Amino acid sequence: MLYERNTKRMNGLRRAAVCLALALVAVLPAAAGGRIHERTISVVPCPETLIRRPGRCLLTERTSLLLSDRSLEPVAGYFTEKIARSSGIDLKERREAGNTLALRLDTQRGIPEEGYELTVAPDGIELVASTGAGIFYGMQTLMQLLPAGIESPTPVPGMELSIPCVEICDAPRMAYRGVMLDACRHFSTVEEIEKLLDVMAMYKLNKFHWHLTDDQLWTVEIRKYPRLTKLGGVRTETDGTIHRGFYTQRDIRRIVAYAAARQIDVIPEIEMPGHAMAAITAYPELSCRGGSYRVRNLWGVEQDVYCAGRERTFRFIEEVLSEIVELFPYEYVHVGGDECPKERWKECPLCQARMKQEGLKTEFELQSYFIRRVEKILQSKGRKLIGWDEILEGGLSPTATVMSWRGSKGGIAAAKAGNHVIMAPNVHCYLDYYQTKTPTKEPMAIGGYVPMRKVYELDPYDQLTPGERAYILGVQGNLWTEYIATFPHLKHMLLPRLAAIAEVGWSYDRKDFDDFKHRMNSLRKCYDAAGLNYATYFFEGKDE
Ligand code: TNX
Predict the structure, then answer these.
(1) Residue 446: CB within 6 Å of ligand 1?
(2) What's the helix, strand, coil split of the chain in %, to 5?
(3) How confident is the model over 70-77, as a mean pLDDT?
């Protein structure tokens, strides 16, 4: 049954006025020395405006679910299943005497693409957005207004679905809010990745960057090159044990669909020209020297890389990317580009001949030639290229998107040059780094020190003019897995720091660490209810 209540159409101007009025009401206590948000209501990432209204709304078996549009059924289903699982309350589309939960698409109202307006009143809840994504995010907010038990995978006896009355106007500041997972150093199963996507969705993160190939493993099935996973998908560790794993194309499709149901795009990363040892082990003819290789079983980088002089290399890359773009129906493909040693190229007659022929003066320019050629391949398939900030060296293509990891310098330079940028500086965004000043009391990590506050302090717009800021697409947390061998450990590294990444991306201009801390303290109960492993340092004040 569709939603038929005769609601007033609100144009963009009127919406702006409502949001402004809400903002004024919400900000007033802050100006008087109070907090922007009422202490009892904790939403992360922080909404644009939130005001508390008197009273509460109770969802019960008699609550009618009203949808303005059939296209909202999958989004509604996602949440009704979740509500049913923990509370036993099965929200249905029906008309009885009870209150309502109304989800409405309205493209006339000027609500930004991922934004929403949520009104909780005693007689019902109204959620309006211009897209399904907006409805999804509004529902995620609603989940955080419910008791934490809503996150429980099993029924919570006697849980009342009571929600404080509020009016919320919300939209993200940044379009790209991501997490990267390295599947190569330690492999994650499909089920584990699905759990990661669930957590991302909770925080309105919308890009899953999947690091699928590296020196230590090739983890994506490519039909044309079966040895990539047969030989490149397995390594013998230094102690003789075997580490293996790869995703079949079916697995990939499953993850892509699972992510799509959570409004998450999946960005595959196929590393080149370095970090390619697993591929070269499978197909040594792609290297400068040929011969026989082994998938690397130490961390750090390998000297052998793809040969930039052979046409065979580019044919291989084109054929691999053809299958990749079929699997990942999104705008971007990440091609790595980081940490490529140039030693082999210096000694390789074919690479040197290529440099001469193309008029390239240094091996850095050869790397740039490599990436530009690959970018053309992607463009011919209608896709855009993302690379780590090393792609700046030797000359950056004007159309490439830079992911800044060696601090923010590369990203700042790229934005000033008019390139799009994703900020993932290691000093703020490396979730494989330690979380406290006493690493000996933490599980072993790669090094570094990135406590919650440090993540939260990331300023993706640092040193940029208002015009240059437009080139910053957003932010990303990176989970490299050299020292993360199990899924509980992975969650320990991810949570709660992921929440800080989300708040930087979604709520950039209203960040307030003390307020965030308070909200996180109350949302911690959601982790407990969901049975999620997380690091407790931040909650115990041990991370600063
Ligand atoms: C650098 S970040 C790397 C990765 C490592 C990571 C460890 C980047 C583009 N390259 O290969 O796993 O450091 O923190």
Answers:
(1) yes
(2) 40, 20, 40
(3) 97
Per the CB < 8 A criterion, the answer to whether 377 and 314 are in contact is: yes
The residue whose CB lies within 8 Å of the most ligand 1 atoms, and thus the one to mutate among 480, 483, 490, 493, is 480
- Residue 202 near residue 231, CB atoms below 8 Å: no
Cα separation of the two ends of the chain: 53
Supply the pLDDT for residue 386.
98
CB atoms within 10 A of CB 457: 14
Tokens of 296: 């690397």
Paired with 269 in beta bridges are 211, 334
Q: Which residue CA neighbors atom 4 of ligand 1 most closely?
A: 480
By CB atoms closer than 10 A (0-12, 13-18, 19+), residue 168 is buried
Catalytic residue among 38, 93, 323, 339: 339
Checking if the pLDDT of 355 tops 70, the result is yes
For the chain, what is the total number of helices (H) and then of strands (E)? 18, 16
Distance between CA 466 and CA 470 in Å, rounded?
Answer: 7
Ligand 1 pocket: which of 338, 404, 479 to mutate (most atoms within 8 A of CB): 338
Task: Reply yes or no: is the peptide bond before residue 329 cis, omega within 30 of 0.
Answer: no
- State whether the beta carbon of 413 lies less than 6 angstroms from ligand 1: no
Give φ, ψ of 513 to 5 degrees.
Answer: -60, -40
Confirm whether 214 is a catalytic residue.
yes
Q: pLDDT at residue 1 above 90?
A: no
- 77, pLDDT greater than 80: yes
Known catalytic residue: 331? no
Cα separation values, 3 from 61, 94, 192, 518, Å: 18, 10, 37, 37
What is the DSSP secondary structure assignment for residue 4, as one 8-state letter? -
Phi then psi dihedrals of residue 131, to 5 deg: -140, 165
Give the span between the Cα atoms of 211 and 342, in whole angstroms.
22
Q: How far is the CA of 527 from the centre of ligand 1 (A)?
A: 28
Instruction: Tell me if 532 sits within 8 A of 495, measured CB to CB.
Output: yes
What is the pTM for the complete model shown? 0.94
Structure-block tokens of residue 67:
């949808």
Residue 17 confidence (pLDDT): 54
Atom of ligand 1 nearest to the CA of 336: 9
Please report, as a single letter, which amino acid is at residue 62: R
- In tens, the pLDDT along 20-66 reads 555 544 443 333 333 444 457 999 999 999 999 999 999 999 999 99
> What number does the ligand 1 atom closest to the CA of 338 have?
9
Please tell me if the CB atom of residue 434 comes closer than 6 angstroms to any atom of ligand 1.
no
